[in-house]
Specification:
Chain B: Keywords: Endoplasmic reticulum, ER-Golgi transport, Golgi apparatus, Transport. Chain B: Belongs to the TRAPP small subunits family. BET3 subfamily. Chain B: Homodimer. The complex is a heterotrimer of chains A (194), B (187) and C (169). By secondary structure, chain A is an alpha+beta fold. Chain A contains five helices and five strands. In chain A, α2 crosses α4. The longest helix of chain A is centred in the N-terminal third of the chain and has 27 residues. Chain A is globular and about 45 Å long. Chain A starts with 23 loop residues before the first strand and ends with a helix. In chain B, a hairpin with a 7-residue loop joins β2 and β3. The relative contact order of chain B is 0.18. With 169 residues, chain C is of the alpha+beta class. In chain C, strands 2-1-5-4-3 form a five-stranded antiparallel sheet, with helices on both faces. Chain C is 29% helix and 17% strand. Chain C is built from three helices and five strands, in the order ββαβββαα. In chain C, α2 packs antiparallel against α3. Classes of the chains: A alpha+beta (194), B alpha+beta (187), C alpha+beta (169). Chains in contact: A-B, A-C, B-C. β1 of chain A pairs antiparallel with β1 of chain B.
């Protein structure tokens, strides 16, 4: 279970045969479900920041679950221990499973050592959205940021992850950048590993 | 409800995503509701149905845009469209419409596959197994979608393999056809 | 279909010269008569306030639908004049033309009505209206921030619509 409540963790699920992950459903099914997730959460909050936080939380549990599934299925329970390894795991393996493609780009921040960016020209959750002016910088990508944080956290790479629109020259629509800022301990460990 | 032919333009081809994205997202929604409603499963069921209704109201437009439109002659045709076209387009599965009532107004959908409930376990708090209808959102989706094409229906689950039942069965009943509204009076 | 008055009393507007200037106005209503969307590309004359204008348009469509179905010589199965019909029931009109404009109309079985007013010499726009409906599905119905039944304010829809409408001939 994806954790209905906190009562049951994921223990027994691994005893069951896992789905092969090849089954597909329509993109619309996801889009409508996601829309309703946003609509429902709008009724539970007073402001945009809180809405993004709730979407991020929802994403986090998806991310944690995806990590479990993928480690079991694709890596024989071997986990990444190095920073670049886990980043490339998120950028390619996780992205491919969830969004059917590798992310458009993975870059290191130029100003801060601890920052990395995964960018997507047209992030699935932002594909059909028009954001009214009164919602300011609201970004549904918070859900995907949550997924990324869930995966990283589960793999032992705690980070603050946020989603941002970045204008692209010559394009009407901005791209979405998922900004990952790793916790200090992660960088210290990485330095020790050399 | 409408009979279906494929619309010629390529813009209406059905784009796909991995079913796991939907499964995991749906699981997260149920988990959020269980938390928000402090595991009051009756309320969770109700909220899921309501969310499904909201989805149905939007989803029917996508269904209509993707399929050509001719009115169904009777509720049996409608049931066929739901299982063979609706479920097929959106969830890539085809439940069986069966157990018709004598008056032709109510039937069961048997879901042999249910992408929403793949690798799901209900919480073992001793209550969820009896009280939570995990996939209840689907009842709301049907209610919302059919209401938009002028059919008022009632839908509920009567069994679920997640609860240990042999099958997952939803009961759907036609209440009435809804008339178009007259334009508002001048005042 | 010619309404009220002689055929060519007033001159028809100049024929469109380049592609892209054929559309004048578009309306979109839901079943309850709520005007979900209104857009003007070219409408110099405005005599009514917008609410009256929308109401009049919805009323016109309602009456026309009912009237055209009543006049249908091929079917014996008709309701009484003024009695609502289910979408897709009976016959339905898809356009009428005056000397100065053409009005094209479609209604989805879910009661979404799309009305496009264009230059009188534009061709059959039934496919164009279906396309506009599919734009509505993509950029309105699937927009997570749109509340069904409320006026449409979606940039993506506007941009794509404007772009498409320019291609109508």
């Amino acid at each position: 279970m994806i954790g209905v409540g906190k009562i049951k963790q994921y223990s027994n699920v691994l005893d069951k045969p896992l789905s092969k992950g090849k089954q597909e459903v329509s993109l619309s099914a996801f889009s409508f479900l996601f829309s309703e997730l946003v609509q429902y959460n709008q009724t539970q909050v007073d402001n945009i920041a809180e809405l993004e936080r709730r979407l991020e939380d929802a994403g986090y549990s998806v991310g944690a679950r995806v990590l479990e599934l993928l480690c079991h299925r694709e890596k024989g329970n071997r986990r990444e221990t190095r920073l670049l390894g886990i980043l490339s795991f998120v950028h390619s393996t996780v992205w491919k499973v969830l969004f059917g493609k590798v992310a458009d780009s993975l870059e290191k921040g130029t100003e801060h050592e601890d920052e990395y960016m995964i960018s997507e020209k047209e992030l699935l959750v932002n594909r059909f959205i028009s954001i009214p002016k009164d919602m300011g910088t609201f970004n549904c990508g918070a859900f995907v940021a949550g997924i990324v944080r869930g995966v990283l956290d589960g793999a032992g790479f705690p980070a603050v992850v946020t989603a941002h629109f970045v204008p692209v020259e010559g394009q009407q629509r901005p791209r979405t950048t998922i900004l990952i800022k790793f916790a200090e301990e992660v960088l210290r460990r990485e330095a020790r590993l050399g | 409800m409408v009979k279906s032919e494929t619309f010629p333009a390529s813009r209406n081809r059905v784009e796909k995503v991995n079913a796991e994205l939907v499964t995991l997202t749906y699981g997260t929604i149920v988990a959020q509701l269980c938390q928000d409603y402090e595991n009051n499963y009756a309320q969770v069921n109700q909220q899921l149905d309501k969310m499904g209704y909201n989805i149905g109201v939007r989803l029917i437009e996508d269904y209509l845009a993707k399929t050509a439109t001719a009115r169904c002659n009777n509720f049996r045709e409608t049931a066929d469209m739901i299982s063979k076209i609706g479920f097929k387009i959106f969830l890539n599965t085809t439940p069986t419409a069966t157990n018709w009532s004598a008056d032709g107004k109510s039937f069961s959908l048997i879901l042999d596959e249910n992408p929403l409930a793949d690798f799901v376990e209900l919480p073992d708090d001793g209550r969820a197994q009896d009280e939570l209808w995990f996939s209840n959102i689907l009842c709301g989706v049907l209610r919302g979608a059919l209401e938009m094409v002028q059919m008022s229906i009632e839908a509920h689950f009567v069994s679920d393999t997640l609860r240990g039942n042999d099958s997952t069965e939803m009961r759907v009943t036609l209440l009435k056809y809804i008339d178009d509204e007259l334009p508002p009076d001048d005042d | 279909m010619q309404f009220f008055g002689g055929s060519d009393v007033s001159p028809s507007p100049p024929a469109p010269t380049a592609a892209g200037h054929n559309a004048n106005v578009m309306y979109m209503f839901n079943r309850n008569g709520v005007c979900l969307f209104y857009r003007e590309w070219n409408r110099p004359l405005r005599t009514l306030n917008p609410q009256q204008d929308h109401k009049l348009m919805f009323g016109l469509l309602f009456s026309l639908k009912s009237l055209t179905a009543k006049m249908d010589p091929t079917s014996g199965d008709k309701g009484n004049l003024g009695v609502p019909q289910l979408p897709g029931q009976g016959c339905s009109f898809h356009s009428f033309r005056t000397n100065t404009y053409k009005l094209s109309f479609m209604e989805s079985p879910s009661g979404i009505k799309i009305i496009l007013v264009t230059h009188p010499r534009t061709g059959d726009l039934r496919e164009a209206l279906k396309y506009i409906y599919s734009l509505y599905v993509e950029y309105v119905a699937k927009n997570p921030l749109y509340n069904p039944g409320t006026p449409v304010r979606c940039d993506l829809f506007d941009t794509n619509l404007d772009q498409y409408v320019r291609s109508i001939s």
